[in-house]
Sequence to fold (557 residues):
Amino acid sequence: MVTADEIAGIAVFAELSEADRERISRAAADITLAAGEYAAYEGGERALFGLLEGKIEAVKHVEGIGRVVGVRAPGDIFGEVPVTLGTTFPVGFRAAEPSRVMRLDPDDYYAVVAAAPDVGREIGQLASHRISGLRGLQGISFEPSVPRAFVVGERWDAACAELRHFLQRNQVAFKWLRPGTDDLTDQWDGPVPAPEDCPVLRVVDGKTVVRPQLRRVAELLGLSTEPEAAEYDTVIVGAGPAGLAAAVYGASEGLRTIVIEREAPGGQAGASSRIENYLGFPSGVSGDELASRALQQARRLGAEILVTRAIMRIDAATRQVHLDGGDVLRARTIILACGVTWRRLDIEGGEALAGKGVAYGAARSEAPASHGFDVQIVGAGNSAGQAALYFASHARSVTILCRSAGPERTMSQYLLDQLAARTNIEVLTHSEVVRVEGEGKLEAIVVRNSQTGDETTLESGGLFILIGADAETGWLPPEIARDRRGFILTGAELTGTDRWELERDPYLLETSVPGIFACGDVRFSPVKRVAAAVGEGSMAVQFVHGHLARPAAARVG
Ligand SMILES: Cc1cc2nc3c(=O)[nH]c(=O)nc-3n(C[C@H](O)[C@H](O)[C@H](O)COP(=O)(O)OP(=O)(O)OC[C@H]3O[C@@H](n4cnc5c(N)ncnc54)[C@H](O)[C@@H]3O)c2cc1C
Fold:
């Protein structure tokens, strides 16, 4: 318990009467922090803290990188900005060494300032000082973020696009320099890379690599690519919303949890420019923002997350998991959260221009590059509608190409209304792309009207294809039952069939192999939504506990 004498050591409370300090002492939480532990997270709920012992640093995350922007010593307070303005914490506060802090929740804080208005005035002044001036929050917002890497490459180089997406989805701040621009000559220290070497990556204060493999990039940037242990309570395949949710719950509930992701965290959500219907984000949230928050949360809670590693094989009898490169992990349980893969469109010239203007999905990072161009979107579902709206703020025009008579039956009404209100969005019905054209990059597309047979050539600065997705589960062992399209059968789909051999019924998300679970889009279910994937990922962990608690769930290996 924080004593009244200790409270007198906090400068703003020094002049309070003994009775007032006693009142604070009865309300304040006494918190001990190990070095590196946070007293308050950026974005966390407001509260006022006083530092009793140790040292606290203020940490601001910009583009995924935490930067120390201030320090508090014993006797200082923090949290004055959120309590004064009634907002969440604009920066986080982390112990730089073992520390002890007192925390006053908002109601207790307001009770103190009601009794001692001078304290309220002083805290208000401190808050104003923290916000204004070059050394305050205002100053921080003017400072450009410091990149961790430079990338040199052309917009239309597919390898460069892949590298940029990878960095973005792994929350690595980087600066993209394009050949032939002033930016490159000003910021690239040394001879300009030859076109045949691009894309080139330079890690700030580190190595330069030409045409790097993503695994190498991950290693250079310190992203985990190697498992730390040989056995885990649960191995999660895929770091989309379902896998990240499972990781958050698994790690927070004390399971040794590893997520293995073959590309970068985020899954399909990372390719979505705006998700409008995810609970708790009234004005929508981009897929990469959602994924980036989930990733931070999973890591903070202790989940191990490997990127650029694919699971190639699972041995159903031993539950051994084989990674590419030959590593084998022992898994007490496995959660399959490997989602679905974009359905490809068979168009003449499409493969040659993939990544050079022809893209599957519509990542937010693509939009600025479409600035001032005419772009087309193939598809009539919600993903296509969302992408069109997002791209319309950058592109000169956006044309939605639908094979059907229109998107009315396949797109939500709120999207149809918003599309109708945008003057630079047009919908072409009964239209199919038959050919794409361009030398080294997409320049035009040829569209055929299926009713008249007429073909029209449209100038194109980007063709984004969003026509649904398929489960790619051919790599799973035959013991894991799937439907004819590859979606994994779980729970009730197996009960009473010859694919389930135990006396007990399978858990809701359990596959035909006890202890192996499936969640999210890869599971046989009509619901393909972020919220469903997140819900199922968290539920899967509950079933993992259930399985581990059974006597038959002997240790493997
Ligand atoms: C453009 C777009 C817009 C969307 N908009 C919305 C929306 O507004 N609202 C909504 O609710 N839903 C939306 N969705 C759907 C939503 O994104 C999906 O339902 C959700 O992402 C499914 O999550 P998941 O984790 O099951 O799978 P995924 O997101 O597909 O993630 C699976 C992950 O597993 C990895 N993986 C696969 N196989 C392996 C392997 N063998 N080894 C290692 N890793 C592997 C993949 O690389 C991937 O990262 C949208 C989807 C798209 C593409």
Notes: DSSP finds 14 helices and 29 strands in the chain.
